[in-house]
Automatic annotation (TrEMBL):
PROSITE patterns: PEPTIDASE_C56_PFPI. The keyword Transport does not apply. Belongs to the peptidase C56 family. The keyword Isomerase does not apply. SUPFAM superfamilies: Class I glutamine amidotransferase-like. One of its GO terms (molecular function) is peptidase activity. It comes from Micromonospora auratinigra. InterPro entries: C56_PfpI-like, Class_I_gatase-like, DJ-1/PfpI. This is Protease I. Keywords: Hydrolase, Protease. Residues 8-176 form the DJ-1/PfpI domain. It comes from the Bacteria. Transmembrane segments: none annotated. Pfam families: DJ-1_PfpI.
Length: 182
């Protein structure tokens, strides 16, 4: 039987520069499983997604990180793209929001360059995880056990490397989010 996310509320934290497919595919997966999704960002309005270095679609923001309450959500997804997590990790409200999920033991999914925000939040030490290869040194220096695998799960944290990993990543976040707190 497929995992269900009926009644679950999932936050996606992203801003301008998010890799479009790393936002849209996981969002489709959790919505298909029954979750209600909200896009949390740095500013109200819309964010500009990218397809590698080409502009992609624009997506409406539901709530800002400053206004968002992690207690209102069951899980968090951090899509990648190079610019997106670089902007997020420099915003204290975004970092606070991310850290709140870990403090509460709530599941988190992160892909590609998304772990930069986790490094800033100080939540990777002792965790086994993966990312885009260029983040290996950052994650290792922050205390993570970095591995080169399609999808890695460590106590509710699901990580993947790149868009090619999305089928495995999407399936695993649905499973972990259905399990709930860890």
């Amino acid at each position: 039987m497929a995992a269900t996310l009926q009644g679950k509320r999932i936050a996606f934290l992203a801003t301008d520069g998010v890799e479009e497919v790393e936002y849209t595919k996981p969002r489709e997966a959790v919505e298909k499983a029954g979750a209600r999704v909200e896009l949390v960002s740095l500013e109200p309005g819309e964010i500009q997604a990218f397809n590698h270095l080409d502009q992609g679609g624009r997506f409406p923001v539901d709530v800002t990180a400053k206004e968002a309450d992690a207690g209102a959500y069951d899980a968090l997804v951090l899509p990648g793209g190079v610019a997106n997590p670089d902007f997020l990790r420099t915003d204290p409200e975004a970092v606070r929001f991310v850290k709140s999920f870990f403090d509460a033991g709530k599941p988190v999914g992160v892909i590609c360059h998304g772990p930069w925000t986790l490094v800033e939040a100080g939540v990777v030490r002792g965790r086994r995880m993966t990312s885009w290869p260029s983040l290996r040194t950052d994650l290792t220096n922050a205390g993570a056990n970095w591995v080169d695998e399609e999808v890695v799960t460590d106590n509710g944290l699901v990580s993947s490397r790149k868009p090619d990993d999305l089928p495995a990543f999407c399936a695993k976040i649905v499973e972990e989010f259905a399990e709930g707190r860890h």
